[in-house]
Fold these 2 entries.
Entry 1:
Amino acid sequence: MTIVEKYWDDAREGDVCTSPSYIVTKERILAYADLTGDHTPVHVDEEYANASHFGCLVAHGLFGLSIADGLKTQSDYRFLPGMSLGWTWDFLLPIKVGDVLHVKFRVGSMRASKSRPGWGIVVLPSELINQDGQVVQHGEHRLMVPRRPEAL
C-alpha cells in the first residue's frame, strides 16, 4: 500500500484517522526507562510496583505520549515532514503491561501561518486508547506543515 503524505492544503477540518495498534510489554517499559534515565521504581521494580497504589508495573506518562506520536506516523493519514509546535497532553489512566494501544486523531483546526509563508498550522486533537476502549491519555498536537507550492 502506498501512503501519500499530505500537504496542509490536502487536509480538511474534521478528517479522522485511527492508527495501528501497539502492545505494551515490560521490556518496552524498561527500554524506555533506560533511554530516558527515569528508573522510578513504579516503572522498573515489579515488587515495588505491585505494592503501590497501581498494583503493577506502569509505563511512564511520557512513554504514552511518545507511543501516541509514533503511532500517528504509522497511520495512513500523514503529513509531509514539518515542525512540531508543541503538545497539550493529559495523563488520565495508567498504562500497564499487556495494554494494546491505538491513537484516534482528527484535524481540529487549520490556518495559514502568518509568519512563515508556504506553511500552514494544523491542530490534531488526539486520544490514546487501550484495548477496553478507555482513553488513557489525550490532548492536542500543533504542527506546522508545508503548503502546496501551487496553492500560494
Entry 2:
Amino acid sequence: MIKIISILSVLFLMAVANANDMKYEKIGQWNIALDNPTQMVDKSRITTLFTGGTITLGDGGGIIKACIEDGHLYAKSLDVNIRCYVELDDNSTMLIEYVAKLVPDETFWDLFPKGVLTTPPNVGLKYWTGEFKMATVSEKYAWVNENVIVGIGLELQGMKDGKAGYALYDLYALKH
C-alpha cells in the first residue's frame, strides 16, 4: 500500500511540475459589444443577443456579426456559453464558441447594471476567464483550429443610457 501511495505521489508531483511549465502566447483580443439587454429566462438562467464587436488575431482580425448567450447565475459565480459568427478580414468566416466563468465581488451587481466599468481582481470582479473554440476554413487563420485558446477577462461594462457596453479579453494560445 505504501508503495502505491509513493508511486502516485511521484506521478502527481511530475504532473504538477509539467503544469507549471505551461507555455502560452498572446494572439490577440476579443471585444464583444454588449448591445442588448440581458433577458432572464428563469430565476437562474439568462439569454442575450449581441450584434457587434471585434476580434484581433495576430496582424488581422474580423468583425463580430452576431452572438447568442446562454448564461447561468449561481450563488457566487456566473457561467456564460456564447456562440458567435465572425466575418474575417480575408472575406472568410469563423465560428467561435466560448465558455467563461465570472466570479463577482460584493460590488458587481451595484456596478455592472449601471454601466460602470468592472475589472478583475478589484473592481466588481474577483476573476474572469474563458476557453475559446474557433473554427474556420480561412487559410490565413487556419492555425486557430488546432489551438487551445484561453481568454483572460480585462474589462466588463454594461449598457448605459442606451449605449452598448463591452467585454474585453486578451486571447492566449497554449503551446505544446
